[in-house]
Amino acid sequence: MSAAKTLNLTLKVWRQKNGNAKGKLENYPLNDISPDSSFLEMLDILNNGLIEKGESPVSFDHDCREGICGSCSLYINGEPHGPARLVTTCQLHMRSFKDGETIYIEPFRAKAFPVVKDLIVDRSAFDRIQHAGGYISVNTSGNTQDANSIPIEKENADEAFYSAACIGCGACVAACKNASASLFVSAKVSQYALLPQGQVEAKDRVLNMVKQAEKEGFGPCSNTGACEVECPKGISIENIARMNREFLSASISK
């Protein structure tokens, strides 16, 4: 069996020493890359070569490399997470690219996602949004009810589960021309709004999370649907409609 054809590529990678420095795209030729390599493995190969030459490696974020943590957020050829659908950058493979192709690799661009170094951005704004309302009350009276014994309509349980699949990668923000976090916020609101355990703080939750998103500098929803298209977990924009209803209801009753 003959060996799989390898790829010769030209990488244009965003390099920036820190958040205050001026960044620019640097050219890096890279040869003999296996089509079966993941995108992050390709970057590892690039960095190994840079280190061997005594040059500074490219800084990029990663952790699980299994599409779970959402930290491997890269803007690849003008798309969050690259050309494939329903995958994170770490799940993207080099067979999605052609031999001789030039690949542009940049950090996510948003005021609320400031660049830390090279391809790494600070996405702690998402954490602060979750802290503003992503919790439920817990009965510690000694007469607590097992969550599994609370009847929940299957449709609501499924919708809550699908919303909870959001990994907070920020692709929705990067895809939106307004850098809106509406899909992320609405997913976090929905996963509680659909369950009885989430009803205690329901009104405060949506008001506080939306307020925090605005405070962080995320823009309004652009209504283009690009966020759903680019989301690696397929989070539906129906969540945004639900968030808007929850927000309106909470605003009227407050």
Please tell me the total number of domains: 2
- Proportion of residues in extended strands: 5-15%
Compute the number of strand runs.
7
> Could you list the spans in which at least 5 consecutive residues all have pLDDT below 50?
none
CATH class of the largest domain: Mainly Alpha
The shape is elongated
Largest sheet: 5 strands, mixed
Distinct helical segment count: 8
Report the span from N to C terminus.
Answer: 70 Å
N-to-C order of helices and strands: EEHEEEEEHHHHHHH
Question: What is the CATH superfamily of the largest domain?
Answer: Alpha-helical ferredoxin
Output the strand order for the largest sheet: 2-1-5-3-4
Mean pLDDT: 94
Round the Cα radius of gyration to an integer and report it.
21 Å
Helix content range of the residues, please?
25-40%
Describe this entry's structure for a reader.
- The N and C termini lie far apart (70 Å).
- Strands 2-1-5-3-4 form a 5-stranded mixed β-sheet.
- The protein has helices at 39-52, 124-133, 154-164, 171-175, 182-193, 202-216, 226-230, 238-253, and strands at 7-15, 24-33, 75-76, 79-80, 102-106, 115-117, 120-121.
- It has 254 residues and is an alpha+beta fold.
- The protein folds into 2 domains: 7-117, Beta-grasp domain (Ubiquitin-like (UB roll), Roll), CATH 3.10.20.30; 124-253, Orthogonal Bundle (Fumarate Reductase Iron-sulfur Protein, Chain B, domain 2), CATH 1.10.1060.10.
